[in-house]
Amino acid sequence: MLFRSDVYEEDGDLVIEVEAPGIPAAKLAVSVGEGTLCIEAALPRRSAVRQWHRRERAGGAFRREIPLPAHVVPSLADAFLSDGLLRVRLPLARRREAERYPLELEREQGVERHG
Questions:
Q1: Full-model pTM
Q2: What is the pLDDT of residues 104-114, one digit of tens each?
Q3: Domain extents in the chain
């Protein structure tokens, strides 16, 4: 099963919408870490003893990692599952301006250089 997704920015948040049809919230695990959103699900496997005419719906364990295109604040994330659509909203992290710290150089002891 492929969790098809859309990733976009809206109102200062990164929003990821993922199709998860037929998967109850209790069977879905969502986590954020190291620049990725990870989605995992486990569905019961279908019986192999049936006489199948068409078999398109898969069972078993599924996992999808979606790279995040920006820095986010995972501790403020929200996730909702409604009508087979998982929607994850991650606040974008503010980039701090580079700060400069002056370093004081020390002279090497016992080394005399002549130019």
A1: 0.72
A2: 655 555 545 45
A3: 5-47+55-91
